[in-house]
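Progress against Task 2.4 (sequence-to-structure conversion) is shown through the following example record, which the project officer requested during the mid-term review.
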Amino acid sequence: MAQLTERMQELFNKVRTVILSTATGNGIPNAVPIGAKKIIDAESSLISDQYCNKTLANMKENPRVSVMYWEGREGYQLKGTVTIETSGQRCDDTARWIDELGVKYALPLKSKGVIIFKIEEIYDIAPGPNAGKQLA
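Structure tokens generated for the chain above:
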């Protein structure tokens, strides 16, 4: 497993939205903005499923995904594998967190489950000569 540095984790937490890319079993791509996300540890993150219809179907067929995030001239692409959880303590905790976000932003948010992303590769996406370079 690849490990996020403290700086990579800080930026992940700082940016409001990341891009989650999936593909069907036949390779048809899909990319969606994700705002409800958290770092679990240096090797994994959590994404709450509120609206992941096509994305969830893709992940059930093909659990390999990519997450990209950036701010200014710094950014990273993470590649790895997901698992989907629809019950248990992590789901309960996430449902409470999403309920709080819904109240805070006056949005009708409801978590249907969690997506656990295990990071296997990390790439630099900043413009310049190191763009695309594998970092871990």
